[in-house]
Fold this sequence. Notes:
By secondary structure, the protein is of the alpha+beta class. It is built from six helices and 14 strands. It has one domain (about 35-145, about 180-270): Hypothetical protein YwqG fold.
Amino acid sequence: MTDASMDRVHRFRAEAATQGLPPEEVEEWIRAGRPAVYLAEGGDGPLVARIGGVPLLPHGVPEPSEPFVASVDLAALPPGATGLPLPSDGRLLFFSGVEVDGIGRQVSDAVLYVPAGIPTVPSPLEPGWREPYRPRELRTVWHQPSAQMPESFALDRWGEFTEDEQFELADELADAWAHVGGYRPPWDLQVGGHPVSPQNDPVHHARDPEEAGPSERGGAAAHGEGTDDWALLATWRCGDDVTELDSGVVHWVARHRDLAARRFDRVHRYVEMA
């Protein structure tokens, strides 16, 4: 954790104390945070990622089933900043259409890993696809703890029988965290951390697709898996790039063990809108 992040944690404890929030839950909120990298346009730093345009694919790779979204240079990310067992170099390529699919599904070619040194060539989409997303270069990088959405925190903390007072406490913790600067910076692409979602938490849904919707307030784990087995790999805020979606977001979610094994063919993909 960076010095700035540690300072924010200290100020959060102080702010929570002035509001009379339970110290045990304050520490749990801190513990539940996950490191994340936020990427945006602007700045004069190295090129970390690019969004839209034509993907660069290795020779012989089948055409992806969905349009190209982004390419991330893993070597350009701060070491350990995502908290995920990702390769230290090479590129991750993300693909997604814009059809809303908030329940999510496994898409075998939603994420492609291209190891460093592998030759690539521009690979335009076949006629009939939508136009490529607007090309943009992302050179601004923030890395800081990412807090859970309050409802997700409450469900992980207290389970399927979470009471209204506990959901309210989670909201108060989130407000105290935001008050000391714990909000997300301006960003287009997030790698690692916790999701921010206009509908369902995609990580919760991946763990238990039958129970993870906010209206059901489902439990924290499914099929014997722990709460840390599934993780957010990345989120793209579509913005004006996708006029078909109102405040659209795309999430890619995976198990830690699959990321460590470079089984990106097991990633789940979610498309949502407000």
